[in-house]
Design brief:
With about 120 residues, the chain is an alpha+beta fold. About 35% of the residues lie in helices and about 40% in strands. It has one domain: Ribosomal protein S6/Translation elongation factor EF1B (Alpha-Beta Plaits, 2-Layer Sandwich), CATH 3.30.70. The protein contains three helices and four strands, in the order βαββαβα.
Length: about 120
Amino acid sequence: MAFYECTLITRPDLSKGDVQKLADGFAKIITDHHGRILKNEYWGLRPLAYKINKAGKGHYAMLGIEASPEALRELERNLGIHEDVVRSLTVRVETMDASPSVMLQQKSGDAYEAA
């Protein structure tokens, strides 16, 4: 099985809890196909580089996945047809680090500097 990072952007009118439920639902697809979820991170409501469907912001989430190609195809199929997902990108990586991603480290660093 290979390692993948799947980043998804959802509509800005969803709550943080809704985005977590959505990410957990996608994680269940992977686990149902005998894969593993190594990371499930919520990056927050962030501005988009350009407007998508008249929205300038979106909720970002990232899943660190170890799965077979069949499980990944099923995940991408579901990402493509889900109405709350605006964009998604899945990238194969060589190794999956257990530490938080750079986005979470940056987010916690910003909170530390503001305090």
